Recover the amino acids of this structure.
């Protein structure tokens, strides 16, 4: 989703902005732009539809300065185009503004204040920058005009603004959309994600909702909603910049798939001590143990991880779990149990759909845990407890290692909780099981060519495909189908194997690929029956099967593991199938069309 960068006090402003925007490419975008200025008032605005490489090519050698702002835009209001790209400019060309978020009342503000202004774009953002000019024209200082605009707009925003007449300060505001200020020696930067600026600084000030800031090259002043100055202690981002690169891999997604065995082992070290001692905050387990139901709230892949986690927690800890789509739950609240405990699963920790639920549940006083890959992300800061995924930065839009990490962390939590509640199933030798899974994933990624061949046989040419399974294999099928459709654009559906015959089987024709996942001995025979049904109607079937249930014609065989943990393993060949199908069909694996990594609008 939109990404913001800004810098003040450096001579290499243009390069800092372009490098920063490249680091934010992973968030998803369809146009980009920069505005660079210097004390001499020699401003340059460059915007391009398409990739940062095109923006870079459009930036001439004269585009130099000591202050600048930049933006990657993921279109919401108005098509992707040069006009709609940010920075947006006020009518007299004095104010330049970039924005991440959605302004809900822009039409109302437009008709109330700006009916005489000719707009150059279709964006909601332009209203904000035109309002600043309007208030300055009516006699306000730039700071007051900026603040008045911030007070008037309703919605989500991270704003960064430069005044061409005074290019020695950056005007910053935040509500709901992420924004950080990075601190340098003789310079400062602003960014949506610390990844964008790690080459310049590891010290950041976080901004909270409702706060504004004025940033000069030597100073950062942060103000609360009442515009009183607030103190902020900077925090240190541990991440090494090298971790944010692709290394020798052609795509981040492949690197991230390969990293999964290491992530699993890291999580075991991180959260499981010897002799089943756990390294979670004891108050967390205490509070979870008091819950009569755990509600897992999430979106996208994290929602699928929640479905797999439900089965694990219910089996091992014997606590009922409800898994909820964040975008639905917050506005259609079901009747909650008496003592709910909320778990927010979110790779980025920034998803707006999940956050609106968190804010509501917090207001209702319920205990909240966020499980996220991003330390200090919004959902992590606002929860009572945070458990980190320690998966390293996930840059590819299609989530892979975050899914396996989420299910793994939930399984470790389930065991800690089960132990506290003294359930029989908490005796599962989880350390051993996760070890087998890590080794099995390693074997799969070491033999990728096999999966590449199946992708070519089954998926390279098709327009649609099905994954089927039962129980945990159904949960894995949902995630497997999502992986496939989001990057290869094959219309793919994950289906409960037994349900296909109740309608959807009408879509099976000669050559339709149906990929079955079978790891459960209780239902294996039934799923085999469903395979026969689709084969009888012409389907090409590919079978991912655990070795104890394998038959001679099955293609992808996995070692036998405790069935409840199966999705952590079975999802991996599906991730690789999606990856190779996408390469074979000639698409960009890491940046699929229309998608954003961190979705900060509802
Ligand atoms: C976006 C991403 C998905 C992700 C979902 C939830 O839609 O494209 O890959 O699963 O957001 O993100 P989260 O960061 O909350 O896990």
């Amino acid at each position: 989703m939109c990404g913001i960068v800004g810098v003040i006090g450096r001579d290499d402003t243009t390069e800092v902005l372009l490098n920063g925007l490249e680091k934010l490419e992973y968030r998803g975008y369809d146009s980009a732009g920069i505005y660079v200025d210097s004390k001499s008032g020699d401003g340059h605005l460059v915007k391009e539809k398409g990739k940062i490489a095109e923006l870079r090519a459009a930036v001439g050698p004269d585009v130099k300065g000591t202050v600048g702002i930049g933006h990657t835009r993921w279109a919401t209001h108005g098509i992707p185009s040069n006009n709609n790209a940010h920075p947006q400019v006020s009518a007299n060309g004095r104010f330049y503004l970039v924005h991440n978020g959605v302004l809900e009342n822009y039409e109302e503000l437009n008709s109330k204040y700006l009916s005489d202004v000719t707009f150059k774009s279709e964006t909601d953002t332009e209203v904000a920058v035109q309002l600043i000019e309007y208030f300055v024209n009516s006699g306000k200082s730039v700071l007051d005009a900026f603040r008045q605009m911030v007070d008037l707009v309703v919605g989500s925003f991270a704003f960064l603004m430069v005044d061409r007449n005074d290019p020695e300060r950056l005007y910053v505001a935040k509500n709901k959309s992420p924004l950080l200020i990075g601190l340098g020696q003789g310079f400062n930067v602003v960014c949506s994600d610390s990844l964008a600026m790690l080459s310049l600084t590891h010290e950041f000030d976080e901004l909270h909702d409702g706060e504004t800031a004025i940033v000069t090259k030597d100073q950062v002043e942060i103000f609360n909603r009442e515009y009183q100055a607030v103190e902020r202690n900077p925090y240190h981002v541990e991440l090494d910049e090298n971790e944010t690169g692709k290394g020798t891999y052609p795509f981040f997604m492949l690197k991230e798939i390969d990293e999964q065995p290491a992530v699993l082992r890291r999580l075991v070290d991180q959260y499981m001590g010897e002799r089943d001692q756990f390294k979670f905050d004891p108050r967390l387990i205490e509070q979870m143990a008091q819950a009569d139901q755990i509600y897992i709230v999430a979106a996208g892949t994290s929602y699928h991880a929640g479905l797999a986690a439900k089965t694990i927690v219910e089996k091992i800890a014997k606590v009922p779990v409800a898994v909820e789509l964040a975008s639905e739950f917050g506005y259609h609240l079901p009747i909650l149990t008496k003592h709910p405990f909320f778990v927010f699963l979110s790779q980025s920790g920034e998803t707006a759909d999940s956050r609106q639920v968190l804010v509501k549940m917090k207001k209702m006083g319920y205990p909240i845990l966020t499980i996220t890959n991003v330390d200090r992300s919004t959902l992590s800061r606002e929860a009572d407890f945070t458990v980190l995924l320690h998966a390293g930065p996930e840059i590819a839009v299609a989530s892979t290692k975050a899914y396996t990490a989420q299910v793994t962390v939930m399984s470790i939590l389930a065991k800690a909780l089960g132990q506290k509640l003294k359930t029989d199933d908490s005796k599962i030798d989880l350390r051993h099981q996760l070890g087998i899974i890590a080794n099995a994933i390693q074997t799969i990624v070491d033999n990728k060519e096999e999966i590449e061949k199946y992708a070519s046989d089954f998926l390279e040419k098709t327009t649609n495909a099905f994954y089927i399974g039962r129980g945990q294999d159904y949960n894995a099928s949902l995630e497997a189908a999502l992986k496939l459709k989001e990057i290869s654009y094959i219309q793919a559906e994950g289906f409960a194997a037994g349900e296909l015959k109740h309608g959807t089987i009408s879509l099976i024709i000669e050559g339709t690929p149906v990929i079955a996942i079978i790891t459960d001995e209780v239902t294996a025979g039934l799923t085999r029956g469903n395979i026969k049904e689709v084969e009888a109607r012409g389907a090409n079937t590919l079978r991912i099967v655990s070795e104890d249930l394998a038959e001679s014609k099955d293609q992808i065989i996995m070692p036998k593991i405790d069935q409840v943990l199966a999705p952590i393993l079975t999802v991996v060949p599906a991730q690789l199938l999606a990856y190779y199908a996408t390469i074979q069909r000639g698409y960009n694996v890491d940046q699929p069309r229309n998608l954003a990594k961190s979705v900060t609008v509802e």
Remarks:
- The chain has a mean pLDDT of 96.
- Residues 299-302, 346-348, 351, 354, 397, 399, 595-599 surround 6-O-phosphono-alpha-D-glucopyranose (CB under 6 Å).
- The CA atoms of residues 465 and 492 lie 5 Å apart.
- The chain has three domains: 3-243, 246-446, 447-588.
